[in-house]
Amino acid sequence: MSMPAAEKVIAVDDDAKNGRGDELDDLPVDDGTKHQISVDPWYQVGFVLTTGVNSAYVLGYSGSVMVPLGWVGGTVGLLLAAAVSMYANALLGRLHLLGGKRHIRYRDLAGHIYGRKMYGLTWALQYVNLFMINTGFIILAGQALKALYLLIKDDGAMKLPYCIAVSGFVCALFAFGIPYLSALRIWLGFSTVFSLIFIVAACVLSLRDGVRSPPRDYSIPGDGPERVFTTIGASASLVFAYNTGMLPEIQATIRPPVVKNIEKALWFQFTIGVVPIYAVVFIGYWAYGNETSSYLLNSVNGPVWVKALANLSAFLQTVIALHIFASPMYEYLDTRFGSSEGGPFAFHNVMFRVGVRGGYLTVNTLVAAMLPFLGDFMSLTGALSTFPLTFVLANHMYLVANRHRLSSLQKSWHWLNVIGFTVLAITAAVAALRLIAKDSKTYHIFADV
């Protein structure tokens, strides 16, 4: 991994080497990048994190989390998942300055701690994670677009695969015009407005339906092995709800002091940022019980214009949120193959984005149209990538980086996290694959679900 010659290397004390120093933020990055870094205030990064967790995915958690876990399991699970996610992300944020360098990519940090092989494995895990999240976003956008169309003209002409194709095209157009993550800026404001529109609409219409409806059934569906597998799959969705799998890449955009500022952004995400999630999840489940749809806006009743506005907002917010999770792939492609000449809006750089980003999103869109099983994607993503990246690796990297500073009790705690979350990841992956296999038998590819 190379270091730009122009970067100044300075002396680093023990605290900075162990990811605890905040005074020495004028450090070289682990490798060069053609995207902007160190330019965003902490609150902009907080909005990036909050935009990621308050995306249209929240419209699915009443069905994918609360229905298989019930009131007690779902509520305790959401609170516990928030606590452990905050803790794991804070550990990861403190490693950003490890060894006298700013590690602006997850793979750079893993490579610094473990070596070249782990660099490659972490890269693979992260991009599988982000690819599946992006695929899920395109499914979500397609569902919102289909719901919007059915409100206007219920003739069955617009199948879900067609809506997914349109969604992928719109996401690509947005990607061509936004060169890097820091350039979102004003779009984060639009994203917040769109999120509030569909969350408030879903909550108000669900409350209205709940008050008018007879008593609901909150019993957990299924029994025997089926219930066990759905419970495990829902647990994977819990951790998926709060985590991006790309905290180092997001932290790279923040202004110094980078550790203190990312902690501020994380506190913003896990306090103010989770309130909308809890509102829509609990109200939606209360209103419809175990009949809650995997896309809450399909369950609600109310004025057509309100539902149409909510679905349109969900579609538009998804286009913006997808760009956040696709940005590590864009950064790699731009840095490795793009040109630095002429700025990001030079004709040849725009054409490069059209070709490369368009190709990447075409693959995402094809997979989304072929296998539009959103709940299964959330479970598999949580199992294969979110558990290992956010919990297993974060705890183990912190353990390795601080092994001479930690007490025996602290080491035991981190090892407990590493082993426990590894076991959970394996069992959740098995459960998710079983669900996908089951749904694949029920629905053919390119299904209009």
From TrEMBL:
GO terms for cellular component: membrane. Keywords: Amino-acid transport, Membrane, Transmembrane, Transmembrane helix, Transport. The chain crosses the membrane at residues 42-62, 69-88, 127-148, 160-180, 186-207, 265-288, 308-333, 354-374, 380-401, 413-437. Its main location: membrane. It is found in: Membrane. Residues 42-433 form the Amino acid transporter transmembrane domain. GO terms for biological process: amino acid transport. The keyword Membrane applies. InterPro entries: AA_transpt_TM. PANTHER family: OS05G0424000 PROTEIN-RELATED. This is Amino acid transporter transmembrane domain-containing protein. It comes from Lolium multiflorum (Italian ryegrass).
